[in-house]
Design a protein that fits this description.
474 residues, alpha/beta, Rossmann fold, Helicase, Ruva Protein, domain 3, 20 helices, 45% helix
Length: 474
């Protein structure tokens, strides 16, 4: 935790209180003291303790009664019981029946007590984070940095809350730009590993000759260029979470080694002789259908089943457009902080324009559009003029199948496209592409955005049409 831990010390002996308070203060924590349970309860109304240290045998309200009152009040801070009269029966009662965090007999070893207080403080931080996430989910339709009121997103949030605290593997699927890494980070934030590292690696971005070194590490001299020992991602992510993005692009031999690590929790560096244990939660992601990757021989079936304990499929943005207004609000806040702007809202016309677009680039594309708009607006309201041209100038397409290779523009609207009955779908597609290129003055990037296809697909279509003969350079 970044802020100083607040520790409430409850003991009827003044020397014990002052001694414990001095130790706690020396450890960089903030102490408060009380002589018995009733005084401690009164102090808690003003002192928001992260951790409580309490004796059991005290006059007035003793430790047992104090723990019972804390438990009845709900949201009990982690409480460590300190007593000179402890036995196994007392320990079981205080820890299990009364909800104490731990039990220590006096005299206490200061180093052990410090470690225990810090662990209890981390536990308190996790509980506070969980409560915040749950409140956001109920009131704002958000989970961490994820936003969504659409039913499918609410189902995903519920699943993440169940899967987050576990150690199980999770497989995340969805189109590019839907936020798969954000899901993995949310799982990490919901887990007891949140204080540990989050490491992400893109399997498609690494050459086959280097991916095992990146994952497992290597020893000095294990291959040409290995001038020193290097830790792999599993070591770096120890006690944390490792995201393996584009898992279907990992070489099959490496997949076999990964499967063994998932089964045994042991890693051997390249060129190394000994294995060592790792404690890492693995999350995998892919923008392809995993079943197709398995049938196509790109993903091992046994690895797929090992990773697919929980499956989270993110819907594309075009299938949950009702979430756009809430996402816009969240993203504007992010962009204001990033670029030191003071944008407060978007106009109704802007929201309408955003709702009409199909978002082939999904949330990533929406984020880029809003980043540009926030910078251009600077403050106040984002207007249509702040949007990219492809959102301002989308041509309205009139219905009907087509008959001419290049459809004629409607006489009453130069941007309208009409087709004659009897034209094939192939000819209609060709005419629409060429008309859109004409509208964008041969700006292929903008045309691809308007058409909702990739730039590569557009180039392939133009090549297929014999674009050079048509006078349009590919």
């Amino acid at each position: 935790m970044n802020q100083r831990l607040k520790v409430l010390i409850v003991d009827d002996e003044s020397s014990q209180r002052s001694g414990l308070a001095a130790m706690v203060s020396a450890w960089g924590m903030t102490p408060e003291t009380a002589a018995e349970g009733n005084e401690a309860l009164a102090k808690l109304s003003e002192f928001a303790a992260d951790v409580i240290l309490t004796d059991l045998n005290m006059p007035g309200l003793d430790g047992f009664g104090f723990l019972q009152r804390l438990r009845e009040g709900g949201d009990m801070p982690p409480t460590i019981v300190l007593t000179a009269y402890g036995n196994l029966e007392t320990a079981v009662k205080t820890v299990h029946e009364l909800g104490a965090y731990w039990f220590l007999e006096k005299p206490i070893q200061p180093s052990s007590l410090e470690v225990l207080i810090r662990r209890a403080g981390s536990h308190a931080g996790l509980r506070a984070e969980k409560r915040l996430l749950e409140r956001n989910l109920v009131y704002k339709g958000s989970l961490g940095e994820m936003v969504g009121m659409a039913p499918r997103m609410q189902e995903i949030f519920a699943l993440l809350q169940q899967a987050g605290p576990s150690k199980a593997c999770v497989l995340i699927t969805g189109e590019s730009g839907t936020g798969k890494e954000l899901v993995a980070r949310t799982l990490h934030a919901l887990s007891p590993r949140r204080q540990g590292p989050f490491v992400a690696i893109n399997c498609a971005a690494l050459p086959e000759t280097l991916i095992e070194s990146e994952l497992f590490g290597h020893e000095k001299g294990s291959f040409t260029g290995a001038t020193e020992r290097r830790a792999g991602c599993f070591e770096v992510a120890q006690h944390g979470t490792l995201l393996l993005d584009e898992i279907g692009e990992m070489p099959l031999l490496t997949q076999a080694k990964l499967l063994r690590i998932l089964e045994d929790s042991k890693v051997r560096r390249l060129g190394g002789r000994a294995e060592f244990e790792v404690d890492v939660r693995v999350v995998a992601a892919t923008n392809k259908a995993p079943e197709e990757a398995v049938s196509g021989g790109h993903l091992r079936e046994d690895l797929f089943y090992r990773l697919n304990v929980f499956h989270v499929h993110l819907p594309p943005l075009r299938e949950r457009k009702e979430d756009i207004p809430a996402m816009v609000e969240t993203l504007i806040g992010d962009m204001n902080r990033k670029h030191e702007c003071r944008v407060t809202e978007v106009s109704a016309e802007v929201l309408e324009s955003l709702g009409r677009h199909n978002w082939p680039g999904n949330v990533r594309e929406l984020r880029n559009v809003l980043e540009r708009a926030v910078i251009l607006a600077g403050e106040g309201t984002i207007e249509v003029k702040n949007l990219p041209a492809f959102l301002r100038d989308r041509p309205a397409l009139a219905g009907g199948l087509a008959g001419a290779a290049a459809p004629a523009a409607a006489a009453d609207d130069a941007d309208a496209v009409k087709f004659q009955i009897g034209t094939t779908v192939e000819e209609a597609e060709k005419g629409l592409i060429l008309r859109t290129l004409e509208h964008t003055r041969n700006n292929k990037t903008r045309a691809a955005e308007i058409l909702g296809i990739s730039l590569k697909t557009l180039h392939n279509k133009l090549k297929e049409y014999g674009s050079k003969q048509l006078g349009i350079g590919a």
